[in-house]
Amino acid sequence: MENASERPSTSVEDYVKVIYDLQERGSGPVTISAMAERLSVSNSSVSGMLRKLGELGLVSHRRYGDVRLTETGDKAALAVLRRHRLLETYLVEALGYSWDEVHDEAEILEHVVSDRFVDRIAAYLGDPAVDPHGDPIPTREGSVPERETQLLSAADEGTTGVIVRVNDSDPDLLRHLAEQDIGIGMRVELVERRPFGGPLIVRTGAPGEQREQALGLVAAEAVWVAPAHEHGHTGGGSGEGERGPSRPRS
């Protein structure tokens, strides 16, 4: 079992995690500029670190080309994502944090806790499949279940599904969604796309309790939905997602 002292450096872990996350969520290749934006550093800083990651055998990258994790890089990224997402889940479930508070805390803790500690958290929580934002939690062996999902912003009018994932990098956005009463496990229908980059009109809630509301494009680009049949969701708006309550704590 790996101890924190035997792992790659904090900066290396941060980089492989971001590369994996961009690969997982993105619709195109991972670029230096996209990494720089996510990490709030310069393009030249990213280029320098990519050379180091290449020497460590964690990434494959050609100049002016896209960035890809190697098999070793994937393994390293999944290990840190498992720690991060289990820590977020523990902070919400056991310590009463709200979903907009846990990301920054987990960013710090993920580099210092032991794998034994993380395994104890997983056992205590009942080996959850997803974290409070619906992000899949890698298993100890490094596997991640695949789901048929799409961004709400990319859906066609009339699309109906269940919210299964929300991007967690912006606490203000998470608070906004909570204020709009939008959370994991909620049934949602895209009713209308307003022209010229206007908001999306969505219908949420269970039959008989539905309401329509406007959702800005930035927010819609952070919400992932799955077909109701895949999610195993029959009633809509039940308040239950793949694990636990759909509404973030405040």
TrEMBL record:
Residues 9-70 form the HTH dtxR-type domain. It holds the Pfam family Fe_dep_repr_C. The keyword Ubl conjugation does not apply. Residues 1-93 form the HTH arsR-type domain. Residues 240-250 have a biased composition (Basic and acidic residues). Coiled coil: none annotated. The keyword Zinc-finger does not apply. It comes from the Bacteria. PANTHER family: IRON (METAL) DEPENDENT REPRESSOR, DTXR FAMILY, TRANSCRIPTIONAL REGULATOR MNTR. Belongs to the DtxR/MntR family. This is Manganese transport regulator. It comes from Streptomonospora wellingtoniae.
